[in-house]
Amino acid sequence: MLKRNGKPVTDGAADQNGNGAAPEPLEYRENDRINAQIDGYIKDNPQHWDRIKAMPRERLERTVVWQQLRYNNRKQKLDNGLLRRVEDNPELKSAYDNLLKHVPEDQRERARVSIARTLVLSQSRSERPKNAVAV
To answer: Residue 6 carries which DSSP code?
Structure first.
């Protein structure tokens, strides 16, 4: 997360200070657990780490953007699959519509997938057969 003066930076605040002055330098949060995981990966994969360090900056930046695009595409496919499962099941669809109508209009877009995920997961849990124990 990016921070400026201890507060999270959002929207256009990362490159504009609002008063015409030069923006203050960004502070990056450190997470010891994540840093330990990264250090472990670097230790276990020194050749890969050397290739990463040898990359030109533009190539490295483009690689990071490509990874984000892939992540967004995978998430969109999963979300579309959840919404399709809700649409295909009349019982889920009515529960989904009922829950969604109680969400404020400005929050509905964000809540759509969350509600669909909850409904689909709860349905799949209830449909799982109970494990029979042989005596």
So the answer is: T
